[in-house]
Amino acid sequence: MNIKQYLAAISVLLVLAIAVSLMPSGKPQPSRAYIEDVEMRALDVNSSHVTLQFKVKISKPERLENLSLIVKFTDMQTNLLVSEFSKPIPERTKSDYTAVLNCSVSKSYNYRVRVLLEQDGETLSMREMRMYGLSSLPPAEKSVDVTVRDVDFRLLNKTDEFVRVRVTYYIDTPRNSTVEFHLKAVQLESNVMADDQWVKRELQKDRTNLVSFELTLRDGYNYRIVLELWNAGYLVKSWSHELRLNPGKSQESKVEEEKGFRVEDFITETRVPVPTPYEEKRLASPGFELLTLGIAGGVALWMRKRR
Q1: Which of 125, 142, 187, 201 has the most CB within a 10 Å radius?
Q2: What Pfam families does this protein's entry cite (predicted)?
Q3: End-to-end Cα separation, the chain, in angstroms
Q4: What residue numbers bound the domain in which 45 lies?
């Protein structure tokens, strides 16, 4: 092997040794803690309060002291803090850690909810959302699982001023139950209730239940027809559609479930400060330090002999 080939081989081995020594020795860790994701569900509901469970996925170094998860509920109308809950995060965890925090709050408010990750009073990360209609959540013992699949309208008779309409709903339920339905027709132009009717029915599972009402309405007006589901004196759920009797403005009526409890998606996310990727110290794999040293020593010895 001539000198040029010998030097080229040494150079290739040296480059390989350096490249291998710079390979990551493990999964990089974040330098600061921050919130990656938040899941929420209702655990328990009674007549006045609801228990909400927050599952917060946190990215953090495996060891970090004095870290806390905080959830704050602020009344959207008055901007006053109503409730606050906190939980310490263990000092040693995996870098992907999920914290669970249960919060029992009053159903009387619409909330602005902030989920914060703090260390020694400093906010590292925050998520925010808005929560509406908690009061519409029925107590667990009064909840009824009902689905309105379709609705029919039939004109029974018509006079100069009034029309008689039969409204039939197609309803499914996974279990037998006895409930009350309240149907009301509200005039869109004036928001005045034009007619209503109560019906008590025993719903049966494994079949589609037909529930019918008859309404007398003044002709030539548009109406919002609202079907309410009641159980043991508690309003559980409602659906609405528009019935247009005004000539020239008629359109297909569509049944929609009334919006009750709803949560707007997380509208803001703040990380203070913004986490930067962790610059992990690259350690040479065992044995490659000796290989590099040996190659360097060989080059030095060869240069000495050349002199």
Answers
A1: 125
A2: DUF7490
A3: 19
A4: 34-137+263-271
Confidence of residue 55 (pLDDT cuts 50, 70, 90): very high
Name which of 115, 113, 45 is nearest 87 in CA terms.
115
- Please check whether residues 215 and 250 belong to one and the same domain: yes
pLDDT in tens, 176-216: 989 999 999 999 888 899 999 999 999 999 999 999 999 99
Distance CA 99, CA 104 (A): 17
Q: How many domains does the chain divide into?
A: 2
- What CATH number does the domain containing 238 carry? 2.60.40.10
Same domain, yes or no: 199 and 174:
yes
Contact 256, 147 (CB under 8 A): no
Indicate the helix (H) or strand (E) that contains 21: helix 3-21
C-alpha 210/C-alpha 170 separation (Å) is 5
Q: Is the pTM of this model over 0.85?
A: no
Query: Are 95 and 60 contacting, i.e. CB atoms less than 8 angstroms apart?
Result: yes
d(CA 153, CA 212): 10
